[in-house]
Amino acid sequence: MNSLRFLCPAALLWICLFVDSSGQGKDADKLKRMNARTLEAKELPETVGWLEDTEGKVKERATRALLAGPEALEELAQQLRRNEMKDKDGRYTTPYFYRQIALGGDPIRGEKRRAYQKRVFGEWLEKFPRSEAAMLAQARLHAELANDTRLIPNGKDVEGTKWIRMRRDLEASAAFLEKSSALRSVDPAWMNTYFVTVDQLGDDTDGLERGTVELIRKFPDCGYVLSRAVLNRVDRREPDERENLAPWLKRHLDTLPPDTAAKLYALTYAGFGNHRGYSAARGYLPLERERMLKGLELLAAEYPDSIVIATQEVALRCWVLEDRAGALAALKRAGNILDVEFMVGTKDGYKIAVSFIRSTPWNPQEMGVPAFSGYFSETPPDRGTIMRKACAAGPAALEELIKKIRSESPLDQHGNSNAARFFSWFNVKETNLYTAELRLAHADLLERWRKEYPASPDAQLASARYWISRAWDARGTTYANEVGENQWKGFAEGLAQARKHLTAAKELQRTDPAWTDVALDLLLGEGDPNDEFEDITDVMFSHFPECPQTLGGALYSFRPKWGGKAGAWEPWVREKTKALPEDVRARTYAQAVIMDAGYAFFSKENEKEIFGGKKPDMDLLWKGIASLREKHPDSIRYPSAEAMFHCKYSGKAALALKEIKKLDGKVDLRVWYRYDYYERCTNWLAWKLME
Fold first, then answer.
1. 416-420, 430-434, 450-454: lowest mean pLDDT where?
2. Which helix (H) or strand (E) holds 338?
3. pTM value?
4. Using CB atoms within 10 A of its CB, is residue 480 exposed (0-12), middle (13-18) or buried (19+)?
5. If I label 79, which of 100, 339, 489, 674 is the partner at 20 to 30 A Cα–Cα?
6. Does the structure show a pLDDT above 50 at 2?
7. 290 vs 283: CA distance, rounded Å
């Protein structure tokens, strides 16, 4: 059943808000976006041209200078900084210049692009040895080279030198930044390169904070670079830093005059949306609506003829403010030309915007539906601090911490295993130097833990979790037929090490769901050659049947991508739980449905994959949710699920609204899967309540 097929690719960062909801099954037809009226076609521009460069053609000129050589690069760098620091749209030109000349791409005149850039940038510095511009270009190039290395799949790094090479280039970038530091206060391109470098180099919280303060003081109208600083915080490992992003940004903006802060806020929000997508921006940066509206108004007045400013406003009003009338006005102001970058880098963005502007759903807030206020995070914000302190203190502290978790707080408010969360700390995916070095530190720590506590099953289980992570890093994230021989070898060796440690920790199987959580991940990688799945899950259902982590791991094995059959989990769960008390059986069934319901409801294909064309047992599902809510009264997971199922199955809008209100605008993505499905449900609610 669990034969290895392929690794599911990572989810796309950009999430489009305007997907067709018709593939939700016949019961979901009522969840389609309801239109109150349709705009006349003549109200929208008939044709659209595209602006794909800055107003001063900085990208085009930078490319020509790169082709021409050192003298042309030096001349253009000086011209932009001294005479064209801003274009007529108010954008700083130099960050675009340095980005353009350092980007990867096709060969140049028969020479590999990176080889050409290294040679020409070297000649530039030789001919102009005191040129800060040449030094800054070197810094940006080394940052881009480090990024090239970072993107190499771990499994293809046969010699194991990936992170060494990356550190070498980032340290070179930092050295050139130091040499060109005279530009720090006069050219925002310096700070932009600094943020790109530090982001990859790892944690430098104090340096990033100083850089942000300096950027806002020197360039309070440079949202392009400030959005890079925001991305630094988003990309950090700890959820408490990401969750504090909005107040952090507000604190910095509040140091500026109100009008300046409003414009910078709009520019930064647009820059972030351009980098990661506007749905992501809404999730990380809860909207200060009045500040954004003020910023857009001021920018439009300052640059009334700017295509860039108008396009940016179209994007923000469509995908953040959900203001159709305002988006239409901005679209008209742009005329028949738009800036492709703010259409999220694709011309299809215009079609999406027009589709949004044409549709005018009932306003959910007018019907009592709470406004979206952000995403709920499952991980306690202090978890990272606690784990880092324990790891720094050594094996004794880890032994003490896991015992304390088991005795004082084995479950969180949703029923998740805190012990499983503890062991997941050692599941590190190498994505940058920080995580690569963390993985090496974990290897040393786990070895010491096993030596100092040779009888500790916890040291062994943490090691098993660690080696599963190492195995998948070695394999890489490509499809099975694209995995090389050395990658498969590293994968097999990692899984073999994990099995050795898991076996040594087997005494935990019947007392701690964390063991089963790790074991199911191991079987998924191994393809379960020994058919252990049934034996392991028998114990699981006997001792902790409704634990979300272990139940989720078991159900994942039924996905067709892993050799399972669509919908086969449902009779399997019924069979496994038939001897359990009725309330436990109901809770377990409800947990199983909740686990993948948001993913299933998102598309017709997903729904078929999970439910196999069948409808859940609604009586058992409602009983299970009621029991889960009684057992976990402080959880938003179960009100979220009940609201979703009322929208999807019962059609009882009043009951759905009652549960939605309890969420206070927070979207729990463990249940809803993506914001889009939550939005469709709230739009349907508003429409039903208008009937």
1. 430-434
2. strand 337-339
3. 0.77
4. exposed
5. 339
6. no
7. 18
